Amino acid sequence: MDALTPTTDPWTVAGRSFNSRLIVGTGKYIDLPTTAAAIEASGAEMVTVAVRRVNLSDPKAPMLQDYVSPKHYTYLPNTAGCFTADDAVRTLRLAREAGGWNLVKLEVLGPPPTLYPDMPATFEAAAALIKDGFEVMVYCSDDPIAAKRLEDMGCVAIMPLGAPIGSGLGVQNPLMIQMIIENAKVPVLVDAGVGTAYDATFAMELGCDAVLVNSAIAGAQNPILMARAMKAGVAAGRLAFRAGRIPKRASANPSSPTSGLIS
Amino acid sequence: MDVLTRIITLTINGEPLALPGPHDVAALVAHLGLDVRKVAVERNREIVPRSTYAATLLVDGDVLEIVHFIGGG
Q1: Could you confirm whether A71 is annotated as catalytic?
Q2: Which entry of A60, A105, A148, A248 is annotated as an active-site residue?
Q3: Is residue B54 part of a domain?
Q4: With an 8 Å Cβ cutoff, is A74 touching chain B?
């Protein structure tokens, strides 16, 4: 625990409290030891994971769980690769059986090059998952109407994209992210699009409850340093949000007193 | 034929597999050399709870998915 990990400012999703406001993905790393080291450096307490067929030709191959223990991190299974509600439900039922988790990340994507959230399919999958007892954190478009509808359906967190997955472009539509935050009674997380630490800071300054980052850390030249940068960026943005920034103004305003000048 | 020597054919993760007896999910997972604590099994599109592996009998033509967690965002 260091100065960047506030102990008095937790956030809560579906009854679970977390001190870290950075959630990290476990994909795209060069190998499992690097995955483990970067995640540790990030200070994250929750990690997203994917569900895939085991490799039957190499059953003893090292598994993610050997390096990123579900005893130490809250696993958030995702539905990456699912294009229908049926696939999403099947995948997460398997995840629930594998680990007993009912807190999940729903993402139903459209095809490349956008990989943009397919909102009609997302609504359908969210309804099916909620009916089946899952607590759904949902990846979605930065559309305040869609976000509110997902919340009203019973999703436990709303996770609009900042920019397309893996693009590293930062928050492209801060106005809409802010509107989603202002309208939501459940946590709002910026998921996807963060490229570097200040993107995470910016998202937190908008008032997000947390930020989800994968590519920007895993793809950095030094993932462990970038993980530390993201941790610091998220913490700085959160502190700045809590502190309340000064209003922007169109003219200068001196920082030093204008009286008592020598003559 | 004795249950222990009879071979059934299953589809596991999209591939055919010939399984000698015994024909239950616990035996299958052991046959494949998998760590039972790290996988989840679906049989004919129904989840097989881990606690019922030994009691879940397999028959010729069953379609199974066996999954685990990998890195993902």
Answers
A1: no
A2: A105
A3: yes
A4: no
**Helix (DSSP H) and strand (DSSP E) numbers for chain A:** 9, 10
ipTM for the complex? 0.90
B66 CB neighbours in chain A (<8 A) are 53-54, 56
- For residue B22, what pLDDT is reported? 87
Counted domains in chain B: 1
Considering Cα of A230, then A63, then B40, then A112, what sign does the dihedral take?
positive
Report the predicted TM-score, pTM, of the whole model to 2 decimal places.
0.89
- Give a yes or no: residue B52 inside a domain: yes
- Is 90 exceeded by the pLDDT of residue A175? yes
**B73 belongs to a structural domain:** no
Domain range holding B19? 3-68
d(CA B32, CA B45): 20
3-class DSSP string for chain A? CCCCCCCCCCEEECCEEECCCEEEECCCCCCHHHHHHHHHHHCCCEEEEEEEECCCCCCCCCCHHHHCCCCCCEEEEECCCCCCHHHHHHHHHHHHHHHCCCEEEECCECCCCCCCECHHHHHHHHHHHHHCCCEEEEEECCCHHHHHHHHHHCCCEEEECCCCCCCCCCCCCHHHHHHHHHHCCCCEEEECCCCCHHHHHHHHHCCCCEEEECHHHHCCCCHHHHHHHHHHHHHHHHHHHHHCCCCCCCCCCCCCCCCCCCC
What CATH number does the domain containing B21 carry?
3.10.20.30
CB contact under 8 A, A56 and B32: yes
Summarize pLDDT for A66-112 with one digit per residue, the tens. Answer: 999 999 999 999 998 888 888 889 999 999 998 867 999 999 998 88
B4 has pLDDT over 80: no
